[in-house]
Write a structure and sequence with these properties.
heterodimer; A: 77 residues; two-stranded antiparallel sheet; B: Jelly Rolls; 4-stranded antiparallel beta sheet; globular
Chain lengths: 77, 169
């Protein structure tokens, strides 16, 4: 099965080339893809944790109960 | 205000490519402007768009501000490529594309290169992205090539990238 390709245009000549990725580039691409997914999962988890902290802080403010330092930090600008 | 605004080159993907690259960029302009309209075939809703300069994988830093339909945030983007915002995947509304405008002033000079991007991710759903990115490539080389990709996923047929040169005289 052929490797994926990239398209490259030479801006001086206008020549457009379809270039098949090398095996090494495909291996690197897969490694990058795994790294991208891991990083995205980390970022999503961090965003979800922050949202949960903010929700908890808001609920405690409304109820008049003490906030943790971490929850208070989400409210300080 | 730019005195001239010229199309250097444009590329339309045919549905089997993972990146769109421009090489031998002429050094005769003051600034570069890249207009991007892309989508990928992969099954998720969104993928991350990247720009690389001269094939480099180091010395990039960046920050963005973004809204995602439910919250606003600011994020560091110190990656091995320049972050240019989210890109539509197959799970986003069909036939919608992300549209981006990337500005690179003084690309042929010997200072570090700044890159600013505004990006929108079209989607008929709660989650959609509007983003502004500021990035720096801490390298003094003139920019002679650039490449656009989205997590190395296959770009759908009809994805386009236009490269313009801008002169101030």
């Amino acid at each position: 099965m052929a490797n994926p390709t990239r398209v490259e245009i030479n801006c001086e000549t206008g020549e457009e080339s379809i270039i098949e990725l090398t095996d090494a580039e495909v291996v690197q691409m897969e490694a990058d893809r795994i790294a991208f997914e891991a990083r995205k999962a980390e970022e999503d988890a961090a965003a979800a944790a922050l949202a949960a902290l903010k929700a908890s802080a808001k609920a405690k403010l409304v109820a008049g109960t003490p906030l943790t330092e971490e929850e208070a930090a989400t409210l300080v600008i | 205000m730019a005195n001239t605004y010229e199309l250097i080159a444009s590329v339309t993907a045919n549905g089997s490519q993972t990146s769109i690259d421009f090489s031998s960029i002429p050094q005769t302009y003051t600034d570069l402007l890249v207009k991007v309209s892309i989508r990928v075939t992969a099954g998720g809703a969104n993928y991350t768009g990247y720009l690389t300069l001269n094939g480099a994988t180091t010395s990039y830093t960046g920050r963005d501000v973004m809204g995602n339909g439910s919250a606003a945030s600011s994020n560091l983007r110190n990656y091995s490529q320049i972050y240019i915002g989210e890109v539509n995947g197959a799970a986003s509304t069909s036939s919608t594309f992300t549209n981006k405008e990337i500005y690179i002033p003084n690309y042929a000079g010997s200072n570090y290169k700044s890159v600013s991007t505004d990006s929108v991710f079209e989607n008929n759903a709660t989650t959609a992205y509007a983003q502004l990115e500021a990035a720096l490539w801490s390298n003094t080389a003139a920019i002679t090539s650039l490449s656009i990709n989205a997590e190395a996923q296959t770009l759908v047929s009809g994805s386009t990238v236009y490269l313009y040169g801008i002169k101030n005289s």
